[in-house]
Write a structure and sequence with these properties.
globular; about 30% strand; single chain; about 190 residues; mainly beta; 7-stranded parallel sheet
């Protein structure tokens, strides 16, 4: 389903069952997986890769250089950037072109959640099932299941697959809500 006011490039690949809502813009070469929801006023830049079952809420901005894995949640007004040293002009005063800068990469791993209004700076990886709090500014990578808050974002704990904060116990983390156990070495 593509809303009639959405601007979707014919060179974009849109997976089966994906819904693109009003005034969203999907640029050429974007690849969006199956069963995604792309909210109102979302911008997906050229070449962005988005996995399956991803939810991108209203007014989020996803720039070139971003890769989003399956099952990711991106809250409203999240911005995933791509220029570590932004300038409009070169040192000589000329308008910058694509050749005058280096694209910063962002990878958002499976199941991660980015809270409303968070800002993700280039050259970071958001780990599997990590959670970025609303309004956080992320300038460093976040580990799997990590919970980061603040400006700049800092790690304050771990979150479960169900999204609730886990409690530390010995060398593992326990979820009081669903009972799952997480071992940072990768086991469950």
């Amino acid at each position: 389903m593509i809303h009639p006011t959405a601007d979707v490039s014919p060179q974009a690949v849109i997976g089966e069952g994906t819904k693109i809502w009003n005034r969203a813009q999907i640029r050429e070469g974007a690849n969006i997986g199956a069963d995604c929801i792309i909210g109102k006023d979302v911008y997906v830049d050229f070449g962005v890769v988005i996995g399956a079952r991803v939810k991108i809420q209203n007014s989020a901005l996803v720039y070139h250089g971003v890769a989003i894995e399956d099952g990711v949640f991106i809250g409203p007004q999240v911005c995933l950037t791509n220029d570590k040293y932004p300038r409009a002009i070169t040192p000589e005063g000329e308008l910058k072109s694509d050749a005058d800068w280096e694209v910063g990469k962002i990878v958002v791993r499976k199941g991660a959640s980015l809270g409303a209004g968070s800002l993700i700076l280039p050259d970071v990886v958001i780990g599997e099932f990590a959670m970025v709090a609303a309004g956080a500014i992320v300038s460093k990578s976040v580990p799997a299941h990590g919970l980061v808050v603040g400006q700049p974002a800092r790690l304050i704990g771990m979150v479960c697959w169900c999204g609730r904060r886990m409690q530390p116990r010995d060398q593992q983390w326990d979820c009081p809500a669903c009972g799952r156990v997480y071992e940072p070495s990768g086991g469950e």
